[in-house]
Write a structure and sequence with these properties.
The protein has 374 residues and is an alpha+beta fold. It is 31% helix and 26% strand. It contains 9 helices and 17 strands. A 6-stranded mixed sheet has the order 1-2-6-3-7-16. Strands 9, 10, 11, 12 and 13 form a 5-stranded antiparallel sheet that branches. Strands 4-5-17 form a 3-stranded antiparallel sheet. α1 crosses α3. The site of zinc ion (ZN) has 5 residues, from α3.
C-alpha cells in the first residue's frame, strides 16, 4: 500500500457520516486525524468551528509571496450508509479499487491533497503562493463548512476535490429545493362531495410542473446541457376514510449559471397561481446552492489545464450536473475549479469505491498545481 492509499484507508475507517443522517458522527474525530497527520510533517494547522464538535481543519504552508494564497478544499463528511452492500468502515482493496463509504466522495481527494502538501514540506519546497489545504465539514447536507471557510477569506484560486475522474470541471449546476402544499377540506369518505380533495388538487399541480419542465429543454449551456426539475416526494392525507385536506410535494430544481433563484421561484409562483380551482402555495426553499461558472481563461483553469496536459491527462474543461463547495468559494470572489479522483457514479453508491491509480494521479496533480500557480 502506498502512503496515500494508507491514509485513505485510515480516513474511510473513521465514521464521518454527516450528523444530519442516521448514525452520523460529528467531524471532530476525522479533523483530529488530519490535524495530527499535518503536525507530524511540521505543517501548521488550526480548526474553525462550524457547529459545536464539527470543525473545519485548515493546514497552511507558507509561499514565497506571502500576500498571495491558493486554497485546496475537500469535505470530510460523507453520505449515509443506508442501503450499502459492503462494510462501510472496513476499507478493502480488490483489483486496484478501494471500497468503503467516502472512498470516492471525497476522502480519496482529501488524502491526495494531504499527501501533496506533505510532500512539499518533506522536500522543503516553497511554493510560489501560500497554500491552504482545508478539510471542510458539512458538504453533504447544508454547506456550512465552506460558508464558514469563506468568511473573510481571500485567495487567488480554489481547487475543490469531488469525484470528477480527474477531469477539469469549470461549471456545475446550482440546486434549489422547496415544498409545495395544497389545501382541501376534510369530509367523510362516503360523502366526498362535501369535501375538497387536496391529493387530486396536487395531481393537477404535478402535471402542470411536468409540462413546465418540458420547457426547460429550451434553455441550454455548452457544458451543462439543460436545467432539470424532479418531484422527489409526495405526502398527503390522514387515512383512507377521510377526504384529504392536505398534500405536499418536494421539488429538486437544477439551475444553469444563467438562471437567477428569485426569478425561478417567481415562475413557480405564477404557475401555481394559474391552475384553475387549486389552492396551492410554496414554502421558502430548504436549500439554495448557486451554480459554478469559472472562466476557462481564468488563471486557475489555465494552470490546471497545463498541469493535466503535462501529465498526459485530458485538459478540456467539463461541466457536471451536481453541486459542490466550489460555487461558494467562487461566490466569495475566489475563482475555483472542481477536480478530483473517482467517478461520481460511485459516490454515495451501495458499493462505493475509488481507483487507487487515480488517487496517485491526484496527489501528483495537486502537488504540481501547488508548485505551478504563481
Ligand atoms: Zn462530495
Amino acid at each position: 500500500m502506498t502512503p496515500a492509499i494508507q491514509t485513505l484507508s485510515d480516513l474511510v475507517r473513521i465514521n464521518s457520516v454527516n450528523p444530519a443522517f442516521q448514525n452520523g458522527r460529528p467531524e471532530a474525530e476525522i479533523a483530529a486525524y488530519i490535524g495530527q497527520f499535518f503536525s507530524a510533517c511540521g505543517i501548521e494547522t488550526w480548526e474553525q468551528e462550524v457547529f459545536p464538535g464539527r470543525p473545519n481543519l485548515v493546514a497552511r504552508l507558507p509561499g514565497r509571496n506571502s500576500s498571495r494564497r491558493i486554497v485546496f478544499e475537500a469535505h470530510t463528511d460523507t453520505a449515509s450508509v443506508a442501503g450499502m452492500s459492503i462494510p462501510p468502515f472496513e476499507p478493502e482493496i480488490r483489483g486496484g479499487l478501494l471500497y468503503g463509504r467516502g472512498a470516492c466522495d471525497t476522502k480519496a481527494g482529501l488524502a491526495a491533497m494531504m499527501h501533496a502538501l506533505a510532500s512539499l514540506a518533506r522536500e522543503r519546497l516553497t511554493p510560489p503562493c501560500e497554500v491552504w489545504a482545508v478539510a471542510a465539514a458539512d458538504e453533504e447536507y447544508s454547506f456550512r463548512g465552506v460558508l464558514r471557510l469563506c468568511q473573510g477569506l481571500t485567495a487567488a484560486a480554489g481547487v475543490v476535490s469531488e469525484p470528477t475522474s480527474m477531469r477539469l470541471v469549470t461549471a456545475h449546476k446550482g440546486c434549489l429545493r422547496f415544498r409545495i402544499h395544497t389545501r382541501g377540506v376534510a369530509a367523510h369518505s362516503s360523502k366526498p362531495q362535501l369535501g375538497v380533495n387536496a391529493i387530486t388538487a396536487m395531481a393537477r399541480v404535478v402535471l402542470a410542473i411536468e409540462k413546465d419542465s418540458e420547457e426547460l429543454a429550451q434553455l441550454s449551456h455548452p457544458l451543462l446541457d439543460h436545467p432539470t426539475c424532479s418531484i422527489g416526494t409526495i405526502r398527503g392525507g390522514a387515512q383512507v376514510n377521510i377526504v384529504p385536506d392536505w398534500c405536499s410535494i418536494e421539488i429538486d430544481r437544477r439551475l444553469l449559471p444563467s438562471e437567477q433563484i428569485p426569478q425561478v421561484l417567481e415562475q413557480y409562483d405564477r404557475l401555481l397561481g394559474g391552475i384553475a380551482g387549486v389552492e396551492a402555495h410554496r414554502d421558502e426553499p430548504m436549500l439554495e446552492s448557486g451554480p459554478l461558472q469559472t472562466r476557462v481563461d481564468s488563471a486557475v483553469a489555465v494552470v490546471a489545464a497545463q498541469v493535466l496536459s503535462g501529465m498526459g491527462l485530458d485538459p478540456a474543461p467539463a461541466g457536471v450536473p451536481y453541486g459542490s463547495d466550489a460555487s461558494k468559494l467562487s461566490q466569495a470572489g475566489i475563482p475555483s475549479i472542481v477536480l478530483g479522483p473517482g467517478s461520481i457514479d460511485q459516490a454515495h453508491a451501495a458499493a462505493e469505491y475509488v481507483e487507487c491509480g487515480q488517487v496517485e494521479q491526484a496527489v501528483e496533480f495537486y502537488r504540481r498545481f501547488m508548485l505551478a500557480f504563481e
